[in-house]
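@channel sequence for tomorrow's demo:
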Amino acid sequence: MDNSKDKVEESVNFLDNIISIIGNPVFVKDDQSRFLIANDAFCKLFRLERGEIIGKTLAEDVPGHEQESFLRIDKQVLMDGKENINEETLTIRDAKTQIVSTKKTRFIDENGKKFLVGVSHIITERKKAEDNLERSRSLLKAAMESTADGILVVGKDGFWSDFNQKFIDMWRIPAYISKSGDDQAALEIIVRSLAAPEKFMAKVKELYDNQRMNSFDMFELKDGRVFERYSQPQLLADEVIGRVWSFRDITQRKQTEDELEKHRDKLEKLVKDRTKELEDKIKELNNAMKVFVGRELTIRDLQKRIVELGGK
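structure tokens (generated this afternoon):
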């Protein structure tokens, strides 16, 4: 009998030691939400000795709304036995608020007594990083939507990861395709709309063969529109994780440039013709002057001769 009791105590001590060295807070509660077991990480989280925790709910150590939340979840799990994972704030005695993810499960012993087993993960820094990332994404999306260019972000695997509405409008991609995320169907629409699709796709292949390469080019669509395309690699810690494509509709600018070129050609021809006309007039005038000078000399000679004859 004593031997059996020693084995039980040994098993309990062994279990306590295992639970105590777990890095995340671990606890066990009875059906009244009173703590029966709390490991070292849990004690550290609440800044209490184990003796100050066992037998208490610690409800008075947290604000009312947090107390209400964890006691409500305790009751629900003990009642229906469904595992619960919940992200919640934890503010211990007016200290800095932490964010924890706690998984709670029910255990029923051989006597039918219910216990609540919980494991918590402190995720404050992770949530802060996620919030910062989400904020950055929101700012990036706002910037993408405010630009006049069509923007497409493509992952290293070739799948589209983001795009703005201008991109959809420029390529006239139907809403049901853009909303479904079927980038293959959207790409087919793009390729079919190009005047020289093989040139476009050859450039795409070149850029993915040389992932750090920047590119700037211009191409035409079958409907007469002209787009500029700029592409640059998307980097993360100096690693290429994708590519950002920027498209700009320059149809109006190209038409204006073509019109200016036509007017420039006409102006150059007009200047050339006018110059030749002036040169011909000058040449004609020079010839007339030569004739006039010749005639003037002849008349002077005749007058001189008459004077000489008259004198005789």
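heads up for whoever presents: The two ends are 182 Å apart (CA to CA).
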